[in-house]
Queue: 4 jobs
Job 1
Amino acid sequence: MSITAKQLAARLGLSEAAVSLALNNKPGVSSATRRRVVETARVLGYDFSRKASPDVRKGTLCFVIYKKSGAVVDDTPFFAALSDGISMGCRRERYDCVIRYLYEDDGIESQVYMLSEAKFAGVILLATEMDEAALKRFSQINMPMVVLDAYFEQLDYNFILINNIQGAYMATEHLIRRRREQPGYLRSAYPISNFDQRADGFYKAIRAHGMSTAKSPVHRLTPSQEGAYEDMKNLLAAGEEPAGCYFADNDNIAFGAILALREAGYRIPEDVAVVGFDDMPACEYFNPPLTTIMVPKLFMGETAAMRLVQLIEGRNSTPLKIEVSTRLIRRKSV
């Protein structure tokens, strides 16, 4: 009776997935491991006419969600869609996926150390709320890693991110062309790299249309619907005269600001037009439906998973920055 792949894995002290890859001459194991598996299989009488089960998993990827304030990264449809995209990519490549949360206030160094000691094939790190210094702490992780939803020029990692400059530029240009006036900016009070890039796109569009950047009013609002509502409500109560149109750093800021403006008697879009960013599902049902920038969230997550698998399996190890393009969705708020 010939030995099975499962028995062979136990004899060699390898995972069944690694043995399957070696026996089927697939990428994902080293040449030395492949030779050892094949030679041992021949000695022990393995039947090479059988193919290992296609359902055998190659390993486990870890989706790490880093939270600093939690005001931006929360259980919203945006991040749920990213997670769904990652899961789709993992299933396609026959990897399992687990989710881990890391919290800035809970001793990040020890959490990173524990992650580095885990037996994952690779890590996708959601770095939305990270700054460059925080991301550097992950250099000790001795496994392939892809950074999702952030970018820092000084770090030589693999990055998958939104083309924030493009999206903010399109949104601002749309306001200028439709309203024929200088847009204001509903800017996040929380500094993260995505919003910094959106600011670059906003001001680039302002300059491209011959306007002075100093003349665009900027209101710093909390990047949640409730927070933005309270902040905008307080500004209006203090006598702030709103601009005729605004670009908002995200949809939640736009939602909150619109609610406060309507409560104060302003009509949307007749008195004040607003464009958001992210295209959350609620945009379609908001009153009025929100013009916004669509981000292909599922595709971003899937791309992150596919890129990580390339790194794990030794295909194209050169660090890449992949920017996913956005699209303007026209609705009734402009």
Job 2
Amino acid sequence: MKFIFKIFLIVLFFLSKQIFAQHESGYSQYMFNGLIINPAYCGSSGVLDATISYKNQWTGFGVAPKTLVLGLNSPLKNESSNVGILLLNDQFAITNKNRVLGSYAYRIKLNDKINLRFGIQAGFESIRNNYNQLTIIESGDASFSASKQTSTSFITGTGVYIHSEKWFSGISLPVLYSTVINGNTMYKPLLIYGGIKNKINDDFSIQPSLLIKYIKNSPPQLDINVLLLYQNKYGAGLSYRTSKTIVGNLFYQINQQFYVGYAVDINTGKLSGLASTSHEIILKYQFGYLKNLQNPKTFY
């Protein structure tokens, strides 16, 4: 089984050499829903984990993206095997995108404290372009009237995730390859991230982390994050994104199983005059819990 898994990863790597253009969603609270950015996150909480998030980007700008994501993941009876599913609806301008992905992660227990996970995901994506919403300057323009409004593609992704109770790190390609052909090509993002959790005293802990998004032929984008936890129940965070965005996070662990979080993005760049803020909310519920689980669950 391990041999087949390695071969599959190699195949996915070569498939990623050329992929086709489409919008990829951005998230501010990925640290609370790791399945969004890395299939290797599957089962890392040790229980069935359900997370739903909604992001309204660039509030006040009518054609801006709105993204709804539902993620489920859980370990199987054999704790080395973990599965998950990710459902995404993304609306931006005249385009409506729906994505369904199934995930599998294989865990290797390096020692009593450190776990290494290899993840893969695969599924389908449907994209519909509502050209009838456009105002066409030239009547009967073939660029729009002859274009296919709906397309369906097969997509894959992969990642690696290593973590302990006090630190975490990962690398992922959430989308490797798509069969959608629309005449344009681009590269998908490579994500590299990591962080640590430091206990200040009996009440406070601090968790700095860093996420690097790299797309070929583009400058890397960095997310520098700091989360402050109080009594492992309340928290606040601040992030700086090198795309000239400041992010504020608030989160509250209602009980051992239920968590709610909110984030606001403040754009300080060139678009700040048109659409300066984005809002994101996340709800997480874990069906049962283990004694050694992190609380709150702020690791990727």
Job 3
Amino acid sequence: MSRLNMMPYLVLLTLMTVISEDCWAEQADQSEGYLLRYKVTAGEQLHYEVTHAAKTKTRIQGEEEISQVHTKSQRHWNVLESNQESFKFQHVLDAVAMTQQQGQQAELRWDSQKDTETPKVFGRIAEQIGQTLSTITATENGKELERDSDTGTKTTLGMGSLTLDLPETPVKLGDSWSTPSEIRTRTENGAVKLIKIRQLYTLEKVQTGVAFIRVRSQPLTPINEESVRAQVVQQLSNGVIRFDIDNGRMLSKQLDWDETVIGFQGANSLMEYRARFSERLVANSSNSLKR
């Protein structure tokens, strides 16, 4: 066979070798498991774009009301310190664009980058633009050790904490880990009831160095009152997180809600909650927000 005629076979052999090496490496990683850890350095900034859209429909005593909110914000982590065991960062709000409509009221719109006047309902958020919302110290696997100067609220509303709780040990495909939390609710007679839940994480797949992690909230406390259930369903997480294994940071998060609760305020009452929360890592936050 001539050298020219052998070229296709040599190319094919090379490709087969590369594919075999890649498959072997993937199998090796899978056999040892994947160690998920944050890897950030002091002075680094991680910029995220966050979008939250929600629609709530309630019907009480025959009267129906629809509320809608859409928020797009730009935020960043300013990493102050980092070592092999922990890291410290500031969570800074850079810009916000919001729309809100309650029932038959006129829709309110506000864009911190364009509007000179701020509707009163958005006043508190406007005060936080450019400010450090919180300063957090966390372990390399994302567990909070300390939180200072928190100007906002620690209520996550099912959107998850700023850092992702990562497992203590390497995990393989299909492995799960969980973290406990509580939701504070009120019963119909006004008493406070704590609902214990767990955030269950499952490593679904790994593709080109990116871990796809399924997250789902599971209530552990029995819920017998629909009024309590209506408060809980809006604070449960259900979605997928993409985590960069090599560079040690979250690439994206998407959570969805599609809930209906009947009888939360009387036999004929109804609440429907449809929402989506998404967060993605971007190069910077200097670009204008797009609606």
Job 4
Amino acid sequence: MSWPTAHSIKALNGFQVPCNVERYYTIAKANQLLDIDFEESFFVLGQGTNTLFIEENIKSNILHMLETGINILDENDKEVYLEVKAGNSWPEFVEWTLYQNFYGLENLSLIPGSVGACPVQNIGAYGVEVMDLIHEVKGFSIPQGRFISIAHDACEFTYRNSIFKGKLKGKFIITSVVFRLNKTFSPNISYQPLRDYFKDSSGFTAQDLAQAVIEIRQSKLPNHKEIYNCGSFFQNPIVSKDKLNQMIDRYPEMPVYAFGDQYKLSAGYLIESCGLKGFTLGNVSTYHKQALVITHNGLGNGREIYEFSEYIIREVEKKFGVKLHREVNVVGNV
């Protein structure tokens, strides 16, 4: 189950930065968690597509969640409840649901990563957040030393956040997620590029919608296996109406999205407006098609990427008075 000596996890992170760990555990079955000494520090790894290791030697135990499987727990004429193990590939799971005619996840097609990681930051894209489809999250409670289930309402989901990223960070390990999906397709094309894509269509299927999402993603975002990256590096910032009014006066063309009684701005727009789209420093760049994405040429290290992101944060705050927050999970001493 483990390597007794240092183990390289360079191939297990989207940025492909060099990183060695003292102990690396592959968790092929959830019950193996009962044998882990949680008195020592640890980090749970899925597919590493949203993780930046900023040190080349990590003393924490790495727990790599690899258990896969999909079980139908319950279903009726309208909906189905699926328990999906944490190690399943998210893109492959979404594709499987479409093949089974289970609907709701189409807009989240092609997001890299594992199923176990999706509730942590409440992944979302093109008008849909995964919290809308999650029924409960199952896992191992470290303080209790046993497996428990956490109902949807107790997950404290908010924009790119959850209890697993907050109060339960380091205290709960997700082993599976239960989804409630629909058996009737009800398309969500609230995202403008999707409306444009289907403007001349009299009718389309869930597979058509998923394909549209895939094409739009591929036109903007690089494949992390070809160009090393972890997708959107920063969250879109949320601002008050007063702050928005101050900014709109100076930047009337700025994209703005209503978000409850606040407003969501485009982090990509803010970065690009600072002249940083396609900007390169050493071995790190912002992607030339989408400033929100930071890429790595494979010759640098995690610290270099972190410092690059710090520079972007400073430049955006200096120009707009808005502080960007990382969506990518940073592991190591900052």
